[in-house]
Design brief:
The complex is a heterodimer of chains A (about 160) and B (about 375). Chain A is mainly alpha-helical. Chain A has one domain. Chain A has five helices and no strands. Chain A starts with a helix and ends with a helix. The mean pLDDT of chain A is about 85. Chain B is α+β, with helices and mostly antiparallel strands and about 375 residues long. Chain B has two domains: about 260 residues, no CATH class; about 90 residues, no CATH class. Chain B contains 14 helices and eight strands. In chain B, α2 crosses α8, α7 runs antiparallel to α8 and α10 crosses α11. Classes of the chains: A mainly alpha (about 160), B alpha+beta (about 375). At the A-B interface, α1 of A face loops of B.
Chain lengths: ~160, ~375
């Protein structure tokens, strides 16, 4: 295998591993964003629904924290699982399955579509936090599509190598 | 490189180049002294601090990392330990800020190295010693730059030592740890390196800190991925490189003694060295932290004389006790003059290439001031 191909393979593998590690960080960010929105956001639906159930004594007081905790954990775990799969893919561990790329792509697309909605009905006092959140989401979208692109290029190079062999 | 090569191997090379025992001792002492001549030492003998050829760890801990501090660091390390290979190198799609550092990457057989050797001709033996130190380090410290830079001197965590395995070779992963007080474990391939620092200009990213002492071990052959390499790997073959360094030192010193008409790059076939190739190869490939004893034994066999161990204070009292107007004629006085002149030459070459990372140097040689 010539040096240039080896370098490209190393580059794309490194990109995928880096994106996978970034997914872990974004998982934490998603969980934190949900928690902050629940605690300080204005009347989130989950908050209202839980309050109704707690006031009707259908759920204990602490149930809200358990449910919030579970949602945060799910958000983090979802990203963690995709990130771990990406890292394993980049390191060539196990069979290289691509379903995590499809899921990540859907996530990335959903995030991309949601970014403009940050700026609808925005208050001037919230501008800085909205911009910060939007920038985080832009970074996430870039990371996801870079991961997909790198995986695609890596697969193309490996296929070409197999055909040449 | 370490004392084994800078002191004892340089002595051997000087003897083979035709210098006498006394001359060889002056040359090898000067070569090793480049690793010792810090501002702290110069202050202790009231010598010009601008002659510093190295920085102690404590000095670097206190070093500023603004432009003034960076210029001070780069002037010393790029001049004496990481002589730049190509100050006009090109690389696509890189801004000037990056290229200024990229062009400081050290490597053997540079135009600067040739100029340095040519300038040493007709000068005191101390200049020859300084030149030999710098020449040797261009081989050992290749692929690293004498300026703090993560994007140049950084590496990935993947280091593989290439060792003999029967008739072939095999790669063994190297593990790094951050324990300066613990010696490297050669059997388990565990070495000490500098801590990872994400700050571009951190002192931890100076030179080959991220590779620890690997470049300075003559036996080490290893593969690694430098940050500047765009995901390409480098195989560093120290036994081969150190042998070339030794041959080139002999060739350079023969030229300086006017036993060669020209000094050309990439010239390693030196008749004086050929009979000792196997012996030198054995010393270089022996797996040990330091090879002083082996080189010393070889040197004493070559000259039939005893090589005194290096003593940093050997010429100290001579310099301190003599009158000011005669300091330039002492051993250290000549070394100081040679160091300042060399630093000025390299710094101004770097400046002429369009980089201000090394600033420029105003040269004062005891009784005259001139901008070189």
């Amino acid at each position: 295998m010539d040096d240039q191909k080896r370098q490209l393979i190393k580059k794309y593998e490194s990109n995928i591993i880096l994106s996978g590690r970034s997914m872990l960080f974004f998982g934490l960010w998603d969980a934190f964003k949900f928690l902050a929105t629940y605690l300080y956001g204005e009347g989130g639906e989950l908050n209202e629904d839980l309050n109704v159930l707690i006031q009707a004594e259908l759920l204990p007081d602490y149930a809200e924290w358990i449910i919030v905790g579970i949602v945060c954990l799910l958000l983090f775990s979802f990203n963690f699982y995709i990130g771990a799969k990406a890292i394993a893919y980049g390191k060539g561990r196990g069979k290289r399955r691509v379903w995590f790329l499809i899921v990540a792509g859907i996530l990335g697309l959903a995030t991309l579509v949601g970014i403009p909605y940050y700026f609808s009905d925005i208050k001037i006092t919230d501008l800085d936090s909205v911009i910060a959140t939007a920038l985080m989401d832009v970074a996430f979208v870039y990371m996801v599509f870079d991961m997909i692109y790198s995986a695609g290029r890596l697969a193309a190079i490996n296929k070409k190598r197999q055909m040449e062999a | 490189m370490q004392e084994d090569f800078h002191y004892y191997a340089t002595y051997c090379a000087a003897i083979l180049a035709g210098y006498s025992h006394e001359e060889s001792m002056e040359i090898c002492y000067s070569a090793q002294f480049v690793d010792m001549c810090s501002k702290t030492y110069l202050a202790s003998i009231k010598a010009p601090l601008s002659a510093a050829t190295t920085q102690l760890q404590l000095e670097m801990m206190d070093a500023r990392t603004d432009i003034i501090g960076l210029q001070e660091i780069t002037r010393i390390w790029a001049s004496f330990h990481f002589l730049p290979k190509d100050l006009y190198a090109k690389k696509k799609w890189r801004p000037k800020v990056y290229m200024n550092k990229y062009r400081l990457i050290c490597g053997p057989n540079s135009d600067l190295m040739v100029k340095m050797v040519e300038l040493a001709k007709g000068k005191p033996l101390q200049n020859v010693g300084i030149a030999m130190h710098v020449l040797a380090d261009t081989w050992a410290h290749a692929y690293y730059a004498g300026t703090p830079s993560l994007v140049i001197n950084g590496t990935t965590a993947e280091f593989y030592e290439i060792v003999q395995d029967g008739d072939g070779e095999k790669e063994i992963p190297i593990h790094f740890r951050h324990s300066a007080s613990t010696p490297d474990d050669l059997d388990k391939h565990i070495f000490t390196n500098s801590l990872y620092q994400g700050n571009e200009k951190s002192i931890m990213n100076l030179g080959h800190g991220r590779a620890g002492h690997l470049p300075d071990y003559s036996f080490a052959k290893y593969r690694f991925y430098p940050a500047w390499g765009d995901y390409g790997d480098i195989v560093k073959d120290n036994p081969s490189d150190y042998y070339k360094a030794f041959c080139q030192m002999v060739y350079a010193m023969k030229y300086i003694r006017e036993k060669e008409l020209f000094f050309e790059k990439d010239t390693y076939h030196v008749p004086e060295v050929a009979p000792y190739r196997k012996r030198i190869d054995q010393i270089l490939r022996k797996r040990q932290i330091i090879a002083c004893d082996d080189w010393k034994a070889f040197g004493e066999e070559l000259s039939g004389q005893t090589i005194e161990d290096f003593d940093i204070d050997r010429f100290k009292s001579e310099y301190i006790e003599v009158a000011e107007e005669h300091k330039k004629d002492t051993f250290l006085g000549k070394f100081i003059d040679g160091a300042i002149a060399h630093k000025a030459m390299v710094s101004n070459e770097i400046s002429s290439s369009g980089s201000f990372l090394a600033g420029f140097v105003q040269v004062k040689i005891h009784d005259k001031i001139s901008k070189s």
